[in-house]
Amino acid sequence: MPINILKTLLPGKVSFEEKDLLFHAGDFWPRKLLIQRLGQKLILPKAVVRPQSVEDIQTLLTWANKEKVAVIPYGGGSGVCGGTQVLEESVSLDLRGLNKILEIDENSSTVRAQAGILGPDLEDVLNKKGFTLNHFPASFHISTLGGWISTRASGQLSTGFGSIEDILLALKVVLPNGHLLETKLTPRSSTGPSLNHLFLGSEGTLGVIVEATCQMYRVPSEREFLSFSFQTLSEALLAIRTLVQKNIFPAVIRLYDEVDTQMALSEIGLQASGNLLVLMFQGEKEMVEAQKSVAQKIFSQKGLSLGEKPASHWWEHRFDLNEKKVAQILSQEGMILDTLEVATTWNHLETLYLEMKKVIESEITVLAHFSHFYMTGGSIYFTFVGSTEEKEVLNKYDAVWDKAMEACLKVGGTISHHHGIGLLKKKWIQKELQEGWSVLSQIKKTIDPNAILNPKKLL
To answer: Are residues 91 and 40 in contact, defined by beta-carbon separation less than 8 angstroms?
Structure first.
């Protein structure tokens, strides 16, 4: 690989240091952490490029496309599906140097920013001007705007304000040949298929997202909480469906199954049987009070009110289980921990939960919550954790995923609601997409004929 030429092409922006190469060998995929714990070596990139401009990225990709060198876009490294795992001789493209907010248009309620900006940095600037993006994934503190778009991310307030595809308005993308694609900023357009949606969820395989324009919201004047306990999951899901199908969408609706409920309530010294439901409402005072009133009426029919405390405690501590704590757990011999998120329509939602819980429980301890709701359905977020003999951890880990994904597809769910595909779920994406997989493969071959961008991921 003629890699040394990068020093001349991009002077001062290329690293060959081992610590940089190791850091960029992959993302926060738990299986990668297990592999490292077992002492297996990771494939490292040959170099790390840290661009300071869009032109730097164009220079890199023009060269890489000519030389047929793989390039792996890298944001915050918070992905959990192996989306930036190095599989062959590659260059890692670290986008965190492109971290500026370029324009805030208060009249149009839009913000234009570079793709490498971290969530807190973007949100802090918006808050000071009285705005918010209302996008808070669990990885908020270590993930980037470009990463959210490339994985089609969702956040904790998605029930009320939508996911990243509902926020995104326009993009700038460097294509594999080095050309710059810019989509037009408008509230909506009917000029053919949406190019924004072509790159949403593409996981760095079709282009490098370098800039995005998103809609923003006013910082809410009111924020209030409600909590309930339901004896059965069926009663709780019916109550939630009743609420959202009346077109009432609180900012947050989270429903915990019985195992997860006990963990959530024990943290705050409360005891309650059944399934915990927490809600958060935000906005203008009159709207908040109206939504709360309808919600209380619906949830009080079968649910026991627990007041504000469980919901407000969740809001205050929602980022407590961070990457450092997960890494600490996964550093212990024999330990396995991971999460998986699926979704389906209301008529299959409880069945999906029961079937997936059954097969995961046959291998390991599992807990779950429902955290993103729509008029038409919702998502389920499973956490599995446990220990086995150290030599069996990869076999156990893979067995859980095999059984869970097959059960999901059998019931009719989608294998990923917001984490993406990466390497982890690539085995099942063709089963879900069917003929759509062939269409995406043809698009990839057309846009990236030399397969230089994040090869062997997603497709």
So the answer is: no
- Rounded Cα distance between 88 and 102, Å, is 35
Identify the H or E element spanning 259. Answer: helix 258-266
First-last CA distance in the chain: 25
Residue 90 dihedral angles phi and psi, to the nearest 5°: -145, 165
Q: Cα separations (Å) of 127 from 122, 136, 173?
A: 9, 14, 27
Confidence band for 376, pLDDT divided at 50, 70 and 90? very high
Query: What number of residues does the chain have?
Result: 459
Which residue ranges make up each domain of the chain? 101-218, 222-316
How many CA atoms lie within 13 Å of 232's alpha carbon, on the beta-carbon side? 8
Residue 393's contacts (CB-CB under 8 Å, 6 or more residues apart) are 34, 37, 38, 334, 335, 336
pLDDT digits (tens, 9 = 90+) for 405-434: 999 999 999 999 999 999 999 999 999 999
- CATH code of the domain occupying 101-218: 3.30.465.10
* Sign of the alpha-carbon dihedral angle for 35, 39, 45, 50: positive
CATH class of 222-316: alpha beta
What span, in angstroms and rounded, lies between the C-alpha atoms of 43 and 81? 16
Positive or negative, the CA dihedral 398, 438, 162, 246 is negative
Distances (CA, A) of 129 to 35, 281, 387: 45, 22, 48
Query: pLDDT for 32-76, tens place per residue?
Result: 999 999 999 999 999 999 999 999 999 999 999 999 999 999 999
Inter-CA distances, 369 with 76, 262, 322, Å:
26, 12, 17
